[in-house]
Structure formats: C-alpha cells, structure tokens
C-alpha cells in the first residue's frame, strides 16, 4: 500500500462493472498508482465500486501499513461515474461484468465507442472465448483476455488470453500492465475454460462425483487437505456457490456438444442439481450448501444430510481419494499442453499454483508428474491403477511424454 508501488502513475485505467471483481481490480490499479475510472450503471453501483477500496484502506490504516495522507491520495485516484464517455482518456479498460456473452458484448461495444483506437480493451472472463466476445467489435485486434483471480489484490496470477485476432502489440501491452500491477501473467490460447478454469473444474467434478458415489464427504475434504490444497473442494464450491458453478458448466456443456464432443460431467452434474433443486442448498451465500452455516455466516461443519441423500456410504482409501483429486487435474493439464492451450510447462506450473491452488509444495501440475516417485513412468502406473478402479478419466493423454 505504499507509494513505492506507484508504477502506473500518470496512466488512466478504466474498469466497467462494480461487483466484487470489478471493485477489487479498481483498487488494485489505484494501489499501483493509476488514475482509475470506474463505470457503474447506477449510483448504488458506483457506491459499491468505491466501498471496497474504502474498506481495504481502513484496514490498512488500522494495521499501520499506511497513513491517512497516503490512503487519501490512493482513494482520490478512484473516480466513479455512470457515463461511459468518461473512459475516453483510458489507456486500458477492463470489463468486469457477469459471465454472459450477450451482456459482455454489449458492454464491450460501449467501451469501444467511448475510447481511442489505441486503447487496450480487456475482459476478465474466466471461461468465455475471447474470439466469441470480440466478434461484434470494430477493433478486435485491440481486445484481449485478462483473467484476474479473487481476491484480486492478493492473488498474483493473471491469465492472458489471446483471441484469434488479438494483435501482438495488444498482448505485449496487456502483459506489461499485468506486471506493473504486481501480477504474474501467463499466456494461454483462446478456448472455453482456457487453462486454469478447465483444470480446476476437474477438481470440482471429481469431488462431486465422489459425493455421488456415496463416499464420506469428510474423507473427500480430509484427502484434499492432506494433499496440500489450501481449500478443500466442497468448501470451495460453497464459497463460489453451486448455482454459479452450474451456470458455467451448462454453458460449457452446450459448447462441447455443439462442437460434436462428448460431455464428461454427467455424474458431477447430477450431484450439483440434486443439491440445488432437491435440497435447496446452493452454497454459503444462502446459508446452506455442503456445509451448514450459523446466522453470522460462520461455517459450522459438513451437512449431516449428505450421507442420507447420497448414500449408501462407500469406503475408499484416503490415499486413493487424495490421488483422484491430484491426478485428474494433472491429466487435464497434460491435455492442455498437448492441445497448445498453455504454451509451456512453466506456465502450467505457475498457473496451477498461483491461480487455482494446486498444492504449492509439488511445484505445480507438470512438476508433480515429473517428481512423482518413479518419475513419469511411476505417475503413469498409478494413473492406470486409478483408471481401473474409478474410470478412464485418469488415463494420461496418449501423446504425452
């Protein structure tokens, strides 16, 4: 929070959208010294866009990390407005509205109309193809994906997504902005789910499938903790909400099937649907999900009814459950490498550790395979064991080394 981090002094950055993501991006840009223009649809949205920064700075002052003068200078760099025309001086504009193609395209056209041809326009989408979003833009070469991770002001990774018409100059500029914001960017090819979301969905789906098999939810969560994940999967699903996870997966399924592919998430989807539609348990935001919550929002423990809804119970070794969670992500990462979705093993490792919480002590998804006892051969042997017991999804791609 010090002025020493003011590497973007004199640069104007626009942020459109005042949800948690947009508000946190605006704050992060102001921390890096930029003048920030936050565009909201309503006065209430404008207040919400500013309140995040106010709260974060108040905590920083209380902790002695900053002082009143420095905090005031930072907050004064954030301007809220309901007028897209106020984005005109921005060198970079970041769109941070809900994950819906039509909504994003409308907002992006508005941004494009308000800004100069040299302005870099970026979307924070975590799953929607950049080429699709840019299809109605007049300047698709100036459009790029900048997928930030929550909480933005603490998470280091930015996934930079290159659309089919994104120019090299736009990619270079977005990487520079990410670094000036104190982030670690990786470059990924445009595809649904990109790299991090695609790999992380395997983690969620494996946990959901295990619940559907009747495996004790406590075993699932303990296995993830034993593996070194910072947050176990059922707890994390509650945090992001099952309803949001379902909406994203429904769009993914439609895209896969339209392209002639086979959707692999039926078992996970049936558990998610039953939790939402039959049990009315959508996650922490509604006070009930895989976990129970107190009136103050405190997590009380796993919902005992899970065993009744998804029983009869099945016992498996905790080592198997641990490896199911780990291996399913590694195998998906290997597919991403083979398909060119992620350009290097180093970016795959960086993205998995900094973006989606793959256990840091492993070095990342690709290092996990390389450092596994017995190396790649040992990994493949264990993957075949898991495939024989739990399904073909654990087979590594045939073309992987």
UniProtKB/TrEMBL annotation:
UniProt-listed Gene3D superfamilies: 1.10.1040.50, NAD(P)-binding Rossmann-like Domain (3.40.50.720)
Molecular-function GO terms, alphabetical: enoyl-CoA hydratase activity; long-chain (3S)-3-hydroxyacyl-CoA dehydrogenase (NAD+) activity; NAD+ binding
Record carries keyword Oxidoreductase: yes
Pfam families named in the record: 3HCDH, 3HCDH_N
Occurrences of domain 3-hydroxyacyl-CoA dehydrogenase NAD binding (ranges): 12-190
Protein name: 3-hydroxyacyl-CoA dehydrogenase
Organism domain of life: Bacteria
Pathway: Lipid metabolism; butanoate metabolism
PANTHER family named among the record's database cross-references: TRIFUNCTIONAL ENZYME SUBUNIT ALPHA (PTHR43612), TRIFUNCTIONAL ENZYME SUBUNIT ALPHA, MITOCHONDRIAL (PTHR43612:SF3)
An individual GO BP term: fatty acid beta-oxidation
Oxidoreductase keyword on record: yes
Family the entry assigns: Belongs to the 3-hydroxyacyl-CoA dehydrogenase family.
UniProt entry keywords in alphabetical sequence: Oxidoreductase
Domain named 3-hydroxyacyl-CoA dehydrogenase C-terminal: residues: 193-293
């Amino acid at each position: 929070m010090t002025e020493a981090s003011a590497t973007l002094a004199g640069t104007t950055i626009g942020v459109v959208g005042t949800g948690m993501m947009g508000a946190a991006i605006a704050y992060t840009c102001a921390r890096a010294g930029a003048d920030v223009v936050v565009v909201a649809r309503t006065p209430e949205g404008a207040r919400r866009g500013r309140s995040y920064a106010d709260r974060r700075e108040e905590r920083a002052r209380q902790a002695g990390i900053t002082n009143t003068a420095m905090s005031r200078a930072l907050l004064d760099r954030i301007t809220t407005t309901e007028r897209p025309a106020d984005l005109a001086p921005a060198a970079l504009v970041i769109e941070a509205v809900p994950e819906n193609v039509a909504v994003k395209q409308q907002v992006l056209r508005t941004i494009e109309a308000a800004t100069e041809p040299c302005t870099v326009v970026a979307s924070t989408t975590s799953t929607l193809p950049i080429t699709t979003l840019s299809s109605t833009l007049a300047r698709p070469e100036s459009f790029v994906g900048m997928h930030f991770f929550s909480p933005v002001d603490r998470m280091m990774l930015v996934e930079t997504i290159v659309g089919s018409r994104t120019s090299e100059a736009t990619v270079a500029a977005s990487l520079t902005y990410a670094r000036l914001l104190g982030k670690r960017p990786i470059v990924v090819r445009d595809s649904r789910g990109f790299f991090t979301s695609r790999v992380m969905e395997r983690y969620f789906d494996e946990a959901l499938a295990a619940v559907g098999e009747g495996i004790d939810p406590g075993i699932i969560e303990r296995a993830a903790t034993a593996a070194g994940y910072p947050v176990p999967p059922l707890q994390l699903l509650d945090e992001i909400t099952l309803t949001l996870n379902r909406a994203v997966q429904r769009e993914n399924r439609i895209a896969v099937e339209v392209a002639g592919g086979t959707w692999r998430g039926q078992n996970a989807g049936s558990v998610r649907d039953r939790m939402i539609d039959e049990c009315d348990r959508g996650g922490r935001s509604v006070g009930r999900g895989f976990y129970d919550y107190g009136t103050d929002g405190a997590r009380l423990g796993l919902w005992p009814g899970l065993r009744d809804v998804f029983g009869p119970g099945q016992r498996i070794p905790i080592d198997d459950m641990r490896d199911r969670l780990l291996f399913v992500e590694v195998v998906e990462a290997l597919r991403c490498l083979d398909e060119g979705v992620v350009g290097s093993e180093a970016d795959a490792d960086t993205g998995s550790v900094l973006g989606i919480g793959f256990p840091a002590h492993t070095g990342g998804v690709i290092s996990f395979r390389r450092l596994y006892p017995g190396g790649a051969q040992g990994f493949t042997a264990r993957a075949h064991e898991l495939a024989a017991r739990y399904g073909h999804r654990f087979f590594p791609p045939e073309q992987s080394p």
